[in-house]
Amino acid sequence: MLSSLLIANRGEIARRIIRTARALGIRTIAVHSDVDAAMPFVREADEAVCIGTALARDSYLRQDRILEAAIATGAEAIHPGYGFLSENAEFAEAVQAAGLVWVGAPPASIRAMGLKDAAKERMIAAGVPVTPGYLGADQSPARLQSEADAIGYPVLIKAVAGGGGKGMRKVDEAHAFAESLESCRREAASSFGDDRVLIEKYILSPRHIEVQIFGDTHGNAVHLFERDCSLQRRHQKVIEEAPAPGMDVATREAICAAAVKAAKAVDYIGAGTIEFIADASEGLRADRIWFMEMNTRLQVEHPVTEAITGQDLVEWQLRVASGEPLPKRQDELSITGWAMEARLYAENPVSGFLPSTGPLERLRFPPGVRIDSGVDEGGEVTPFYDPMIAKLIVHAPTRAAAAGKLGDAAGGTEVWPVKTNAAFLARAARHPDFVAARIDTGFIERHIDALAPPPEPSASVLTSAVGAILPPASHDPWTGLTGFRANAAPDLRAEVTVGGQVHLVTLATPVPTSIAALDGGSVLFADGEAWPFSRPRADDIVRGDALSDGMIVAPMPGRIISVAVSPGDPVTKGQRLLVLEAMKMEQGLVAPFDGIVAEIRAVDSAQVSEGALLVRIEKDA
Ligand code: ADP
Ligand code: ADP
Ligand code: MG
Question: Distance, CA 382 to ligand 1 centroid (Å)?
Answer without folding.
Answer: 18
